[in-house]
Amino acid sequence: MEKHWYLVSYDVRNPKRWRRVYERVRGSAERVQYSVFRMYATRTELEAFRCDLVRLMDDEDDLLIVHLCTGCARRVVDTSRQQNWNEERRQVEIL
Length: 95
Prior knowledge:
95 residues; alpha+beta; 3 helices; Alpha-Beta Plaits
């Protein structure tokens, strides 16, 4: 399956839930900003990831996942550090 870039952002209001969500996201994605991550994944990997997060989160929490097409990923401006969104990334999942 083909992999794509995704931008993942969350807002979790409870510190205990936030920690669980953070650990799950950190295991599959790279941090870009405080609660913003980038993820290089297949559609299947993304769906499993999303389902895990929905189970960890509550109704008052928010999750945003944005699919970035190849052209969009090339145009990402990240001034915080040198990151290349054009290249394939090795995915390491912490269990």
